Please model this.
Amino acid sequence: MGYKIKDLEKLSGIKAHTIRIWEKRYNMFTPARTESKVRSYSDAELVHLLNVCILYNNGYKISHIALMDKDAMNNAVAKEMVGTPTDSSSEKLLKALVDLDEELFSDTLNALIDKQGMIVTFSDYLIPFLKRIGVMWLVGTVRPCQEHFISSIIRQKLIASFDKLPVPSMNKKAVLLFLPENEWHELGLLFYNYTLRENGQRTVYLGQSMPYKALVKCITDLKPKAVVTSWLAISDSKRISHYFKKLKKDIGQIPIYVGGSQIASNKEALSDCIEIKDLSDLTNI
Model:
């Protein structure tokens, strides 16, 4: 796949100007050139840059890194990947995505969760990481299999972490979580569910693509203290507004909390719903 230098900047966190200096001074990269003379970097060069970042963030001098052959670099990177998470955790996650390396991704994620906890890991590492994947989607440099592979591992970790939390008493009023019909992006909702449960809330999780009539019937029967959902699938504000106006009318005074990228860009469509801007909006339920 062909990456522009600005893509490398967004994915690695290293300024394009610095990448050019490393390329010129140390001959670290040999990008191809398009007909218009624009640099084009391969998957292998992205992985090489991520390896450089891992070593650089762990105190290696760039002049020393530049002298390493492939085996020496791989050995040094492998050494740095053992143990507690470092500033290079984001590079490790991205490298695992490119290489479809489950062991690296899982070990990095486990180390972060053990040290930081699931909420900090998701907020400070996984959300920025998923945004980087979004950039890769936009430039056409991530394959569906890579995105599904990584999303599946994150989903497993969230569910496993959730399963370790105590189950609240049935006497507590529940918070109900669901995704609208044809909405399949579940990671955000799983994280909301984990956050609520860690804060002692009883939750009822309905999951993906919930049929509208069945949803309203469930809310009517359960009478939850609040309803939580997320909307990531691309949609127009008119459809979003219609959905939440109807839901608000059908379930009465029960508060509706809504997150997701489509809500952030269509705030005017919320119709008396509460936007989830940060975790405090959930923990205050």
Notes: Strands lie at 32-33, 39-40, 174-178, 202-205, 226-230, 256-259, 274-275. The mean pLDDT is 86.
